Amino acid sequence: MKPAKILITGANGQIGEVLTRHLQSQFGQSNVIPTDIRDIKRFTNYQHLDVLDRQSIDHCVRTHGVTRIYHLAAVLSAKGESKPMQTWDINMGGLLNVLECARDNEIEQVFFPSSIAAFGKDSPKTMTPQQTILEPNTVYGISKVAGELWAGYYHSKFNVDVRCVRLPGVISHETMPSGGTTDYAVEIFHAAIQNKKYHSFLSETTRLPMIYMPDVIKAMDQLTSAPGEDLTVRMGYNITSMSFTPGELYNEIRKHIPSFEIDYVPDFRETIARSWTESLDDSQARSDWGWSPDFDIERMVVDMLHHLKS
Fold first, then answer.
1. Are 13 and 79 in contact (CB under 8 A)?
2. pLDDT confidence of residue 288
3. What is the reported pTM?
4. Of 126, 148, 218, 239, which has the maximum CB count within 10 A?
């Protein structure tokens, strides 16, 4: 079999940077093409690419013989609220360009991440089921719901093999977040190891589902490797590994750094977070493709502090 030729959009983002290193180690640097609208000098085989430029996407795919696309380029929830129309154009236009490119060039598989931002105030708060009300209150969430619907459409109408997960808040020691409502769960660690008081933009009791970056990569590997006939969901699988509040995360960090201090100064992101789910039912992903996370809050905190300190 020919080796996979993989195109990654948004490779300079929080997930894209880690995924690029992972896939290049797995498939070889020459078989993975990281792209972004911002220049990425640290990656081999990097290509400058604007996901709103359909012709450039087609050219890149044909030049490199791309067989799989990971479409990560997007504007996130909090940042997106400041420029809603631009966010919609990038999130929706970019995805549709990738799906059309996949259709025209017979791409074997497309992966793109949805988000818990797809849920809204009328979605069940705890153990939110796979199929439920999706009425988000952010342009980011609206674009993710629309993206899930388009993914289902392209699969059923054009037989494009689109695969998708609804990601909770992502925590990573390797990269910083870039404008999301769950960014506090990364920022708090950097404050802790620098002996700085952390000012949380969410309240002490706002509970959200979260996932650690190694489990994000694991889920992407498992889903993209699963036989297509085993997949019963083409719009966005619920996945999660833990749920906690800023107060609970703070207390867990204090077990290792007792002098760490925090205060709570909620801003507009509190309203966004309060409209999201508190925990997810990911039994469908577990059943269909064997999803099972490796990290809970205790293991994640130990691992984060270890890597950040070293």
1. no
2. 98
3. 0.94
4. 239
